[in-house]
Specification:
This protein is mainly α and about 400 residues long. It has 13 helices and two strands; from the N terminus they run ααβααααααβααααα.
């Protein structure tokens, strides 16, 4: 059944720093916010993107269409599209020239005897500093539009990864809830029993106080979990284009299938990771525009060589963590199944009067804890899987 809710509002983007505005002036930019055209997706895809539901499989598209940073970067890239190294170098040089001229005009407009000379001199000095900074940027410019595109693509990929991590964390909090609620129920029941025993003189005040503190601690843990989950909801909303206080339906995160896990080939992935890494490809592009024979070129060459080693090391480490998560998931499943069997046995014992209510609740709490651990292990497996996949697909730590 389709969830009915408030549609995502149209996004209006306010952007750009003074630096971007200045670059835009040099390039003759006209900044206007725009979304993807209707033909970018089939109508049914637009319908799902615009509904009031967050789905794990839609995170990349939601980030692409509705994340403010991504939209800003897309607008900024429109001004870099097709720009050559010389275009960007000249843009910085033009800015430097403009600021040098501004500084000279300010100083020429007043002399030391006129009122306001101090303020004009200070402004002229600031313009001179800005001019020198842009001159340094022009002299060191080693990028083109293609490198800028890689930077924006990497930023978008990192935001998708961040959204995935937050949604996984959100559901880890949800998975912990039943266990925390069971722990609360048990601690409160034990405190009630302790109160009765203390009233009958069978328990000391210190022991009663300890039972009360245990119940309070259990309630605090549940409250903290709820608070952290609510914060994650708000962060997800902002990342994906909703208002911070919106209440979209957040669908569960799928656990990786055996087919997905079996399809991993480390050796092939190592080659791919090095070939598509965003940072590595950008550095290789910058090397083309770095002067031969200088220290800067030697530094860049060493950075690229180290980057290749770092990428392979990062992918290998992520693969080991994925294998560990896979083993922990299997172990957590066995422990939960055992706890379920023990609780079923305890239920029969309770019906026969062989154990007390609190003893049965202890088994309930234990089973709930094992179920939470199993669910969280599955989500941890998803996190490890995504960490590995992202390292293979461009986000391995090259530097």
């Amino acid at each position: 059944m389709k969830h009915k809710g408030k549609k995502k509002p149209l996004r209006r983007i306010r952007i750009f720093t003074a630096w971007c505005a200045a670059i835009g002036t040099v390039f003759g930019a006209s900044f206007t916010a725009c979304a993807s055209p209707e033909f970018a997706y089939p109508p049914e895809k637009w319908e799902t993107l615009r509904d009031n539901v967050m789905e794990y499989g839609e995170l990349a598209d939601l980030i692409h269409e509705y994340n403010a940073t991504v939209i800003n970067n897309r607008l900024a890239y429109d001004e870099y599209r097709g720009k050559s190294h010389d275009d960007l170098k000249n843009a910085y040089q033009d800015l430097a020239d403009q600021m040098y001229e501004s500084s000279d005009r300010l100083l020429d407009s007043v002399n030391e005897d006129q009122p306001g000379y101090g303020a004009a001199a200070a402004q002229a000095a600031l313009s001179r500093v800005q001019a020198e900074q842009n001159q340094d940027l022009a002299d060191a410019q080693n990028e083109d539009g293609a490198i800028k595109k890689l930077e924006y693509e990497r930023a978008e990929a990192e935001l998708v990864q961040q959204a995935q991590t937050k949604m996984i964390s959100y559901w880890q909090k949800e998975a912990a809830r039943p266990s925390l609620e069971a722990a609360c129920a048990l601690a409160e029941s034990q405190y009630e029993a302790a109160s009765l025993r203390a009233g009958a003189g069978m328990l000391s005040q210190a022991e009663l106080l300890a039972a009360g503190e245990k119940a309070e601690s259990a309630r605090a843990a549940l409250h903290t979990n709820e608070k952290e989950q609510d914060a994650l909801r708000g962060e997800l909303c902002v990342l994906l284009g909703w208002a911070h206080d919106a209440s979209p339906e957040i669908r569960p995160v799928p656990i990786p299938t055996e087919e997905e896990l079996a399809g991993i080939c480390l050796e092939e992935d190592l080659e791919r990771a090095e070939a598509v890494n965003y940072v590595q490809r950008a550095n290789e592009g910058r090397l083309k525009y770095t002067s031969a024979g200088g220290n800067q070129r030697e530094i860049m060459e060493k950075r690229i060589a180290a980057g290749a080693q770092n990428i392979r090391a990062d992918v290998s480490a992520k693969h080991r963590l994925l294998e560990q998560a896979r083993e922990q998931y299997s172990q957590a499943q066995m422990e939960w199944e055992l706890a379920e069997s023990q609780m079923a046995s305890a239920g029969m014992q309770r019906e026969l009067g062989m154990i007390s209510v609190n003893q049965y609740r202890e088994k309930q709490a234990e089973s709930a804890g094992k179920k939470a651990a199993f669910d969280q292990a599955g989500l941890s497996l998803r996190q490890a899987f995504e960490d590995y996949i992202w390292s293979v697909n461009g986000l391995a730590a090259a530097e």
